[in-house]
Amino acid sequence: xGASGLPRRLPAVLVPADGESFASWLSRAAADWQLAPGxxxxxxxxxxxxxxxxxxxxxxxxxxxxxxxxxxxxxxxxDAQALRAMQLSRYAASALDFAGLDLGSEASLTALGHxxxxxxxxxxxxxxxxxxxPVWPLWWRLGIAAVCPVHQVLLVDVCRRCxxxxxxxxxxxxxxxxxxxxxxxxxxxxxxxxxxxRRKAGLxxxxxxxxxxxxxxxxxxxxxxxxxxxxDGRAAARVAGQRAAPAEFFAALRFTAxxxxxxxxxxxxxxxxxxxxxxxxxxxxxxxxxxxxxxxxAGTQLRxxxxxxxxxxxxxxxxxxxxFAPDQRxxxxxxxxxxxxxxxxxxxPGKSDPLRVVPRPACLEPLVRAxxxxxxxxxxxxxxxxxxxxxxxxxHLPHLVDVDDYTELLATQLPGTAPASGxxxxxxxxxxxxxxxxxxxxxxxxxxxxxxxxxATNTLVQRITDPDAFWRATEQIGVRLCERGLVDYxxxxxxxxxxxxxxxxxxxxxxxxxxxxxxxxxxxxxxAWVWQHFTxxxxxxxxxxxPALWKAATTESVREGWRRFAAWIPDTVAAQLTAxxxxxxxxxxxxxx
Length: 593
What we know:
Layout: H1 22-33, H2 37-44, H3 66-76, H4 80-84, H5 109-115, H6 127-132, E1 147-148, E2 153-154, E3 169-170, E4 173-174, E5 192-193, E6 202-203, H7 218-231, E7 238-239, E8 242-243, H8 246-263, H9 266-271, H10 279-291, H11 298-303, H12 309-323, H13 328-346, H14 365-371, H15 377-383, H16 403-410, H17 419-433, H18 439-445, H19 450-460, H20 467-484, H21 489-495, H22 504-511, H23 520-535, H24 555-568, H25 571-585
Antiparallel strand pairs: 1-2, 3-4, 5-6, 7-8
Helix pairs in contact: 1-2, 8-12, 8-13, 10-12, 13-14, 16-17, 16-20, 17-18, 17-19, 17-20, 18-19, 22-25, 23-24, 23-25
């Protein structure tokens, strides 16, 4: 280091090839300087992780910190533009979104790694390109990298000899660089293989040019080139024939990819002539593996970066008719096919809508909205039914309709639905009949937890196959409600909102003869029983089960306590609690109880 804290100027520096990645340039420069890559990183002045036995530059190949940039400029004579052009951050305004990246904290890479379509610790490669020249283009590290447009072959992900992703360096220390002074053949894999019983640790000597190169149709190679031209700014981005910003194009690509991952069938893959042999089987295997993953919901899996070049090739081929449609009408026609399948899938019992968490870009939003079947399929059926003003108002509705009414009249319309969830949806439907203009308003009119209401309406209405039959059954539940005598459940909920424990003096006369102590837990379970009995609500929402009152107990233990209490409660205790509840509610709200 010089007196200024900057490294001394290196005597001779290779000029980066056009589009070359930083790791590739550093490896070639190291060979020219007769240094190991790790030594070259130190000579260039890159900031590195302290405390590692291998050299691990900060944000290596992703972005340069200000200190790394200043040192690299001083050591190499390359300007900032040339150095930054070799980092993945080059694509931050097109194929990638680096919002949230903090160059002061590598922990910020975690969210980026889960979200962005990029290979942050490895690279794909074209064996034919490397046979001609040991230069690794930066675009090989994009998640959408699938095919070499020049040689029309699939890119390779994994070395067949060491089984490690290409360009990963030290397995266990991704992007760790070799520091031991030795001759490094740039035509070899050079991943560091860990020692085993049969083999010493060392560099993988797989000849990269000898890796199998699977040919692909020319149309797929041309499609890859079109996408790369948009990423690099060499071509204007268009979606459905309309100009779009490059970032919007890639957002549309990711949304469409999520859609086809969700609903594409084997027939769709077989009909796609641009795909190489065996691509369909590998794509299906990737999807199955991700669906079985222990982390991340369905929406997360749909948004994930393509795990292989084959997967990326399938994504390119299946999204092409949508993204590169000549006009919006053609694009909408293609989208309609996908969206109809997605909606049909949501109506399957046990299925929700994983696409709800996948961002829709502005350039596709109106087309997706127009292509999707009407969201008012259920509410729309109510709108065309004869308007009959019910005798009840939302104040007369419980949060859960009577269990027998639900079982006899409505359960068959909601296959695969838990009774408590179906009874909640029925209460919301009754509120719609009473005049609520949306499911959100129905929940508000009932003073129902909006999250629980949204879960019921967003998921369960998709399972209804006969909207007219659903509304007829709901109207019948309303008729039965009136025949029993209307009850002001809203007033009851207000009156009992503060009931967190039944007084000791109420329970003692009926519990003592049964040799049961009047504990605080029993008083709270009794309060929950009273609340449920008079409000017809979900006992889990009883004021007595406010988590703040049960700080030392888990949710499961509280619920297990309620189950034991509900199974135990004898008639004498039930009668005493009923009388206690009536006393609390008199004189105005007990009618019909």
